[in-house]
Design a protein that fits this description.
The chain has 303 residues and is of the alpha+beta class. Helices cover 55% and strands 25% of the residues. It is rod-shaped.
């Protein structure tokens, strides 16, 4: 609209200028014909200028329409630009948030990876330790199985030995005059008990003789005999060799200790024998004799 007003003003100014020229011409030329001719020219010029004005007015209207269309498009484009800027700002904000979140997630993932790596190292160490422990356990199991087999064999031997001993005791002892409640303690030099082979320095033996009939009471010799599982007396430089009666038959024995004991109705008798040689691993038998027979026996083991 402003362009149309400008064009109209320009046309008016040109028309006024033209009229001024005509008036000035009239002042200078007094000739009526010339004036008429000039007037004709002026009219033609006015017609031409009117036509030009009309054309210019149409062009101005056309330009005004294009201007309005462009202005409308400009408003629309400005709106689209503002929307695009808002979308861009939102996208940038979302991108910034995404970057921050991604950085936080990456840091968290790194921490988790470090923890998992450390846990894997710990697990690998534990697995190695378990494998080593399993190998040791398998080795120990093999040793235990071997020991178990050996123990079973030794138990079988001990059972056989005990069965044989019980049979011998029943045959060789009196019903009411026998040694019971044996306590056999291998000891080290200071008197502390031990069951380890190669360490014992003495053997402490104690037993009960109870409910002894009157016919067996009185002073009698008591002999301590210690043999290995094969029946061989343990080593000694000077055995106490004597003969006792077993079922009214003479029996030679080699005792390691002997003494006279006043046998009453009941008593506990103790012996302590100092070993000349330390005992090896195995089973041993302690037997107690008197002049009229075997009072009793018991076994012990050195490991």
């Amino acid at each position: 609209m402003d362009s149309k007003k400008v064009l109209t003003a320009v046309v008016v100014i040109l028309a006024l200028a033209l009229l001024g020229s005509l008036i000035w011409g009239f002042g200078k030329n007094s000739d009526a014909k010339e004036l008429q001719a000039d007037n004709t020219e002026v009219n033609e010029a006015l017609d031409a200028m009117t036509s030009l004005r009309d054309n210019l007015a149409r062009e101005v209207d056309s330009l005004a329409g294009e201007y309005d269309l462009l202005a409308s498009e400009n408003v629309e484009l400005n709106g689209q630009l503002a929307g695009t800027r808002d979308e861009l700002s939102s996208a940038q904000s979302a991108l910034s948030r995404a970057k921050r979140n991604a950085a936080a997630e990456i840091n968290e993932l790194r921490a988790q990876i470090e923890q998992l790596t450390a846990a894997r190292g710990d697990l690998q160490g534990s697995i190695t330790a378990l494998e080593s422990e399993n190998a040791n356990l398998k080795q120990q199991m093999g040793i235990l199985e071997t020991d178990l087999a050996s123990s079973r064999q030794q138990n079988d031997e001990l059972t056989t030995m005990a069965t044989s001993m019980e049979g011998e005791i029943k045959k060789l002892t009196y019903e009411n005059f026998k040694a019971t409640a044996f306590q056999i303690t291998p000891q080290v030099k200071n008197g502390n008990p031990t069951s380890k082979s190669g360490r014992a320095r003495q053997i402490a033996v104690s037993f009960d003789v109870a409910n002894v009939p009157a016919e067996f009471q009185g002073v009698r010799p008591i002999y301590l005999v210690i043999t290995d599982e094969k029946g061989t007396p343990i080593p000694r430089t000077d055995y106490i060799s004597t003969t006792v009666s077993l079922n009214n038959k003479p029996q030679d024995i080699q005792a390691v200790e002997a003494r006279e004991e006043n046998i009453g109705a009941s008593q506990r008798i103790e012996f302590t024998h100092n070993l000349e040689d330390k005992l090896d691993e195995g089973y041993y038998r302690v037997s107690i004799y008197t002049d009229i027979g075997l009072l009793g026996s018991s076994n012990f083991r050195m490991r």
